[in-house]
Amino acid sequence: MLKLRFLEDNRPLAELLRADWDADPAPFAWYRISSNAIYPFTFEGEQRFLRFAPAAGKRAETIAAELEFLSYLGKAGYGAAVPIAAKSGQHLVSKATPWGSYHATAFHAVPGVQLSRTDLGDIIIASYGRALAELHQLSQVYRPEGPPRWNESDVLDWIRSVLRELPGTQGAMAEADLIEARLSELPRDPESYGLVHYDFECDNVFFDAVSGRCFAIDFDDAMYHWFAMDIGQAVDSLADEVEPELAAAREAVFLAGYAAVRPLPDPALRAVCRRFADLYWYARVADALSETWPDEPDWMTGLRGRLEDGKTERAARFGSPLA
């Protein structure tokens, strides 16, 4: 998540960065900002998306590694967002602006409808499970040519670097040690460990009824981790989208779709993966909230309160025994 000061709509900045790509001269209809700013645009009527973030919070090498993985997936025929080259021929544009230095990329829209906007019937959910398994199959044999994405150990190191600068984080620091000790016991074999999407949730996956396939977007959080991490995140997301009494049945359909492509990871790993996800979320939010201003707008004050509540909820689980 970006620091709160970067969450405000900045259309002049978006227009400046969009100028590096071919685009129709039309105003932005909407925007979304979380770990990146997303602004939709068109070129010759085709839907595209501009994505950018301050260079202070994103490394160019990390984004380049994401784009290399997406290129690999595209060549393999996997359904994922396709990057668009800028007018310069580069897929990543790093630029000094009046608002600071930024990294920008652009992507074609994927076909279909966001899973969270479908009826999430069995056919769609089974396709969802297959799509994740196919991604893991490709990840299993992926060998990047450039610098790789970071792994779970790198993330834990980053978490500690954030937490040690903030007050009242002793419990979270101890949680990082607990998770690291548990993960160190697990095998890192190609069948169970590789480059995961990390955010393979219903709002980042689209179902195309014409092809019967799912298409994934937003690989910005991809990291090397156990494949069980993606499964846990996807299943939890699915449970959030359906009635509680349907969650178990929908999970079973998802897992059957996955198992039709490759063996399911040990379900026992999902507990430590969920704790990892909670701690990572906690640290990212703590970092985002670390800056304050005397005259914050009402929307920012409200968001700060909701995020603090989320931190408190997750912190209450820190330190409990891990299976």
Question: What report would you give on this structure?
Answer:
The radius of gyration is 20 Å and the shape is globular. The protein folds into two domains: 4-108, Phosphorylase Kinase, domain 1, CATH 3.30.200; 113-315, Aminoglycoside phosphotransferase (APH), C-terminal lobe (Aminoglycoside 3'-phosphotransferase, Chain: A, domain 2), CATH 3.90.1200.10. With 323 residues, it is α+β, with helices and mostly antiparallel strands. It has helices spanning 11-18, 60-75, 122-140, 152-163, 170-183, 227-241, 247-259, 269-288, 298-315; strands at residues 32-33, 37-43, 46-54, 93-97, 100-108, 113-114, 193-196, 205-208, 213-216, 223-226. β2 and β3 (46-54) form a beta hairpin. It has a five-stranded antiparallel sheet, covered by helices on one side. A three-stranded antiparallel sheet has the order 6-8-9, with helices on one face. Strands 7-10 form a two-stranded antiparallel sheet. α3 (122-140) crosses α7 (247-259) and α6 crosses α8 (269-288). The model has no long low-confidence stretch (mean pLDDT 96).
Q: Strands, helices and their partners?
A:
Blueprint: H1 11-18, E1 32-33, E2 37-43, E3 46-54, H2 60-75, E4 93-97, E5 100-108, E6 113-114, H3 122-140, H4 152-163, H5 170-183, E7 193-196, E8 205-208, E9 213-216, E10 223-226, H6 227-241, H7 247-259, H8 269-288, H9 298-315
Antiparallel strand pairs: 1-2, 2-3, 3-5, 4-5, 6-8, 7-10, 8-9
Helix pairs in contact: 3-7, 4-5, 4-8, 5-8, 6-7, 6-8, 8-9
